[in-house]
Design brief:
The longest helix is centred in the N-terminal third of the chain and has 23 residues. A two-stranded antiparallel ribbon has the order 1-2. Helix 2 crosses helix 7. The protein has 188 residues and is mainly α. The chain is built from 9 helices and 2 strands; from the N terminus they run αααααααααββ.
């Protein structure tokens, strides 16, 4: 039996949703909604002294203390390993992480709204959503997580109505060199 006989083909539905340019309009709407959500969250933190001002880290420390209180019981909202990470890595450096969260949310939001490096921005948005969920915060995180996962899977068309349409052919991907990185072949 050769390897090609074991290959499972992609579903026509998933191919249509995540690869067909006809769905770019749908992913534009999702991308802008998710991007606006991130931008709004980060922008609200940017002007706050508790996030990026002279008391930076104060709000994040309060958030972490709340998460650490959710570690008790038979079925805790926050798992012990994540509580240990929050307590030993994030809490001692709350000011640094506070700035990282604020600027990360803004960067993800701007990138998604503009449609530049959509797959990468979506991945980092997913990472932040996952972190918030692990800390026991639900809010809109499950919705943004699912939409972000869709954007990651549809990265090839999700930025088609955005800057990716122009940027990706120039810079390329790790498996495809863009026009900026292709060697000029000399004509002798």
């Amino acid at each position: 039996m050769d390897i090609q006989s074991c290959t499972i083909e992609e579903s026509p539905i998933t191919h249509f949703l995540f690869s067909n340019p006809k769905m770019a309009w749908f992913w534009l709407i999702v991308r802008v909604y998710v991007g606006w959500s991130w931008l709004e969250a980060g922008w609200g933190k940017l002007g706050s002294p508790m996030w990026t001002g002279d008391q930076a880290g104060g709000a994040l420390s309060g958030f972490i203390q709340g998460a650490l209180q959710k570690t008790a019981g038979a079925h805790p909202d926050v798992q012990g390993w994540y509580a240990s990470f929050l307590q030993n890595v994030v809490l001692p450096h709350a000011s640094f992480w506070s700035h990282l969260v604020t600027y990360g949310e803004i960067l993800v939001g701007v990138a998604l709204i503009l449609g530049i490096f959509t797959g990468i921005a979506s991945f980092f948005g997913l990472f932040m959503n996952f972190s918030y969920l692990l800390a026991g915060t639900v809010s809109t995180n499950p919705i943004l997580f699912i939409l972000g996962l869709g954007l990651v899977m549809a990265w090839r068309i999700a930025g088609q109505f955005g800057l990716d349409y122009f940027v990706l052919p120039c810079v390329g991907t790790p498996w495809f060199k863009g026009s900026l990185f292709k060697k000029k072949e000399s004509t002798a």
